[in-house]
Amino acid sequence: MLSYQHHYHAGNHADVLKHWVLLEALLHLEKKAAPFDYIDTHAGAGLYSLTSAEARKTNEYSLGMGRVIDSGLAELQPLTDLLRPSLKNRRYPGSPAIVNALLRPGDHAHLFELHPQTYIELDKNCARKRQSYVRREDGFIGLKALLPVKSRRALVLIDPSYELKGDYKKVCQATEQAWLKMQQAIILIWYPVVDRARINQFEKQFIASRLKNVHLFEMSVADDQEQGMTGSGMIAVNPPWTLADRFNSLMPELSRQLSVDDQSRFRHRLLRPE
Ligand code: SAM
């Protein structure tokens, strides 16, 4: 039973971090002319109205990207430049639309979404003939089946909603299985910070894995003791080598601007060496 709907959360502080890391990885891949494959295991709808009843109910965009879109932060600019045309029409692009916007001839996107209505929206917003394939299938299974890709260059985003406790373990296992099939792939895994003890456990699973070159990038907007999602993180396998420096340069100001109390909270940790 799928109940999570990203329509309530599009453009929130977690999307700011997630989509910034995603775009950094994408731009890094595009430094080379050789084509690549993008795999989005949990793609969502691709485009979200910021005037819908769902978005207005939570107001999360205003507290997230809406707060920093005009901040002028240099490291954030590639993302804000890319989002701006859609935002003018009061729509926030999700991960598949962000990647679609930058696909070059020869690059491919494989977008998985299980929710029936969200799948229809994704197909309408993001399917592109012979370039972006939308599938109503389980993204974990699809990922395993697609790897290794013919292009020998892959960017993977694993972005579940963690509605079930078992999802954390499943995500780590799926990442390891994917990596075993294609060790040079860039794999990005999003996670929410709702319960710190659970995240400590999640980190331990990655530390105990066989994966190599695994980094954690986390940004919080409130103290862990507060209620709800106080922050989020991205675990990155084979991230661009510049990412840690750019993250450490951007985060003091970005996380302060997004926080509820003018405090900056972020961390970078190497979970597995190369
Ligand atoms: N990646 C999107 C973005 O950044 O714009 C947001 C995705 S949202 C957090 C997670 C999506 O995964 C939901 O739309 C949900 O319906 C879908 N979903 C849940 N389980 C899935 C599965 N096993 N395979 C594919 N999609 C799934």
Verbal overview:
The longest helix is centred in the first third of the chain and has 17 residues, at 13-29. The model has no long low-confidence stretch (mean pLDDT 96). The chain has helices spanning 13-29, 53-58, 60-63, 65-68, 77-88, 95-100, 116-126, 139-146, 167-181, 196-207, 243-258, and strands spanning 37-40, 47-49, 91-93, 108-112, 132-135, 154-158, 186-193, 214-220, 231-237, 265-272. The chain has 274 residues and is of the alpha/beta class. Strands 5-4-1-6-7-9-8-10 form an eight-stranded mixed beta sheet, with helices on both faces. A two-stranded antiparallel sheet has the order 2-3. The chain starts with 12 loop residues before the first helix and ends with a strand. The relative contact order is 0.17. Helices cover 41% and strands 20% of the residues. The protein binds S-adenosylmethionine. The site of S-adenosylmethionine has 21 residues, from helix 8.
